[in-house]
Amino acid sequence: QVQLLESGGGLVQAGGSLRLSCAASGATFTRFNAAWFRQVSGKEREFVASIKWTGGATYYADSAKGRFTISRDNANNTVYLQMDRLKPADTAVYYCAGRTSFIYNFNTAPAYYNDWGQGTQVTVAS
Questions:
Q1: With 0-12 CB in 10 A as exposed, 13-18 as middle and 19+ as buried, what is 18?
Q2: Per DSSP, what are the bridge partners of residue 61?
């Protein structure tokens, strides 16, 4: 099992940027397909973006396209989410998640991912 630790959340003004990091440890990072989700209290967890273990493919929710960029540094076992042009609607707890598999299938369901971090709060002020 891979342990995940998110960082980089905080308070930012609308239109600003934040970069979230997800540091992985424990099991091998190889073949670890990663994703970012977000959740507002009282609502379901929502898919944001995912990246193949090779870094060679990515997939975004419509709400993230053109503003967010997911990337990874396999040498340092870290996944990133660069968030630009932030909006108040982006306010949520952001979670890093992953599943170890050769197959990357653009899955957006939280139940598909079996490794999760504790989350980091992102608040965008208007």
A1: buried
A2: none
Q: Which two tokens stand for residue 59?
A: 């997939």
- If we measure between CA atoms, which residue out of 20, 23, 21 comes closest to residue 4? 23
Cβ–Cβ < 8 Å for 68, 83: yes
Quick one: tokens of 88? 């108040």
Per-residue tokens: 75: 């040498």
**Burial bucket for residue 52 (CB in 10 Å: 0-12, 13-18, 19+):** buried
Strands 120-125 and 58-60, bridge-based pairing: unpaired
The beta-carbon contacts of 69-76 under 8 Å, at least 24 apart in sequence, are 70/34, 70/36, 72/34, 74/29, 74/30
Per residue in 58-115, pLDDT (tens digit) is 999 999 999 999 999 999 999 999 999 999 999 999 999 999 999 999 999 999 999 9
pLDDT (tens digit per residue) in 10-40: 999 999 999 999 999 987 788 999 999 999 9
